[in-house]
C-alpha cells in the first residue's frame, strides 16, 4: 500500500520550491543565499534581530556572479540598478525633539 518513492513534504525539495538565478552559472550561489536568508528571516528577523551579516559574503559573491552573467548578455548593471542609498544629510528617523 505504501509507495517507497514518495518523500515527506517537509523534507522534499523540488525545483518548484525555488527559483533559478538570472544566470545559470549563479544557481548554486543563489540557493546558498536563499537558504541563508530564509534561516536569518525566520530565526533572527522575526525575533527582532535585524543584522544579516551572516549572509553578506554569499550575497556579495552572488551579486558579482550575476553582474558577470549580465555582461555576457550585453546588459550593463549600472543601467538596471536603482539608487536606493539614503542621502548622507537625511535620516531615516525624524528627530521627535524640535529645538525652539
Automatic annotation (TrEMBL):
InterPro entries: MDM35_apoptosis. Residues 1-20 are annotated as: Disordered. It comes from the Eukaryota. GO terms for cellular component: cytosol; mitochondrial intermembrane space; nucleus. Transmembrane segments: none annotated. Keywords: Disulfide bond. It catalyses: a 1,2-diacyl-sn-glycero-3-phosphate(in) = a 1,2-diacyl-sn-glycero-3-phosphate(out). GO terms for molecular function: phosphatidic acid transfer activity. One of its GO terms (biological process) is phospholipid translocation. Residues 1-16 have a biased composition (Low complexity). Belongs to the TRIAP1/MDM35 family. PANTHER family: TP53-REGULATED INHIBITOR OF APOPTOSIS 1 (PTHR46403:SF1). This is TP53-regulated inhibitor of apoptosis 1-B-like. The gene is LOC112679898.
Amino acid at each position: 500500500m505504501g509507495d517507497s518513492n514518495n518523500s515527506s513534504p517537509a523534507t522534499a525539495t523540488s525545483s518548484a520550491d525555488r527559483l533559478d538565478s538570472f544566470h545559470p552559472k549563479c544557481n548554486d550561489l543563489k540557493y546558498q543565499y536563499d537558504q541563508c536568508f530564509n534561516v536569518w528571516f525566520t530565526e533572527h528577523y522575526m525575533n527582532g534581530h535585524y543584522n544579516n551579516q551572516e549572509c553578506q559574503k554569499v550575497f556579495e559573491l552572488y551579486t558579482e556572479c550575476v553582474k558577470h552573467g549580465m555582461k555576457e548578455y550585453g546588459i550593463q548593471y549600472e543601467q538596471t540598478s536603482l539608487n536606493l542609498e539614503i542621502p548622507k544629510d537625511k535620516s531615516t528617523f525624524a528627530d521627535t525633539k524640535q529645538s525652539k
